[in-house]
Design brief:
It is a single chain. By secondary structure, this protein is mainly beta. It has a domain of 176 residues. It has one helix and 20 strands. Strands 2-3-4-5-6-7-8-9-10-11-12-15-16-17-19-20 form a 16-stranded antiparallel β-barrel.
Length: 342
């Protein structure tokens, strides 16, 4: 073959190959990174095509218990549970301030779902009635409130006023409240010390006749110093036992035929250092005639071991003494939590 013929053939193949390559789909580049939202903090990203920033987070958790004391025949002395919580926090700036929508699911059911703007929060939100960081099984935690709350800053403190769905126990002499519960709360901090005060007004309506005006007050204090923490809380109420008993729905609130309200107290403390925490709590709800309808005393210890970032293991052992009017019974329980945030 002549050299000129070979060169012409090679050129033709190059041209043909280039034309074929031009017909192939272009290789896609890497997708554009989502824009962050530093104004709202870490973890927020801008939803493409909108001015709304979103943060997604939550946790997965294992809860296990073993009853160390004797149990009735046919009653399992252990339990296992898997819990999943996921939350969506959407925020955007507007002419009236930051508009926020937050929703979360706890174990497949709605936990929080609220809208807030300019100090106003409406929906289901965390209650200002919160005892803080006690033991996992100390028996006193802040419930979820559903209603409307307005919060305003006063220097380094805050004040909130809310009207929420009434929390009524279901004892034999009460049904429900004929109006929302009204709550006022105040919180302040100075360095590592924090104080929270709350008061709630609760109306009680009898199944047959009679009404009663109940109330409850709460005070909490916490302090941290290096690896040491201290948490204290105390509450007192009349005719509002739900707020003193972590939602124990079997407690009597009032003998509404005579409008004689029940009364109760809740006290607790937790001291922690280097992952260890010792806690104690006492709940004493009195019936309208002065007889004890529920006395619950607990003491325990737990330890938090951080396995890795956002992953911890927390064993806890506690003793519970329960007296519902016929003598106290003792039970000892070993509890284990394995928790992973994301």
């Amino acid at each position: 073959m002549k050299l000129s013929t070979l060169l012409l053939s090679s050129a033709a193949l190059v041209v043909a190959g280039s034309a074929y390559a031009a017909d192939l789909p272009a290789k896609k580049g890497a997708p554009a990174a989502l824009a962050g939202c530093p104004a709202f903090g870490a973890g927020f990203f801008q939803i493409p095509g909108s001015d709304t920033c979103l943060k997604i987070g939550g946790y997965a958790r294992y809860n296990g218990t073993v009853t160390l004391s004797s149990v009735a025949r046919g009653t399992a002395p252990y339990s296992n549970a898997g819990i999943f919580d996921i939350g969506f926090d959407a925020r955007s700036n507007s002419e009236v301030g930051v508009v926020r929508a937050y929703g979360s699911l706890y174990d497949g059911a709605t936990e929080y779902a609220y809208v807030s703007v300019g100090g106003l929060t409406a929906g289901a939100f965390g209650s200002p009635w919160d005892a803080g960081n006690g033991g996992i099984n100390s028996g006193f935690v802040g419930p979820t409130d559903t209603g409307i709350m307005y919060t305003t800053a006063v220097g380094s403190s805050s004040v909130s006023v809310s009207a929420i769905t009434a929390k009524t126990s279901s004892g034999t002499n009460v049904t429900t409240s004929d109006r929302p519960d009204l709550m006022v709360a105040f919180s302040t901090s100075a360095g590592a010390a924090k104080v929270n005060l709350a008061a709630v007004s609760h109306a009680v309506v009898g199944t047959a006749s009679g009404t009663g005006q109940g109330y409850a007050v709460l005070g909490t204090a916490s302090m941290a110093a290096g690896a040491a923490t201290l948490n204290l809380y105390g509450a007192y109420g009349q005719g509002a036992s739900y707020y003193l008993s972590n939602g124990n729905a079997s407690l009597q609130e009032a003998d509404t035929a005579s409008a004689n309200l029940s009364s109760g107290t809740a006290l607790g403390a937790a001291v922690g250092i280097s992952g260890f925490q010792v806690f104690g709590s006492s709940f004493n709800i009195q019936g309208t005639g002065g007889a004890t309808t529920n006395k619950d005393n607990r003491v325990g210890v737990n330890y938090t071991y951080n396995v890795a970032k956002n992953l911890y293991v927390k064993p806890e052992v506690y003793n519970k003494s329960l007296d519902t009017g016929s003598g106290a019974t003792q039970s000892q329980t070993l509890y284990l939590r394995i928790h992973r945030d994301f």
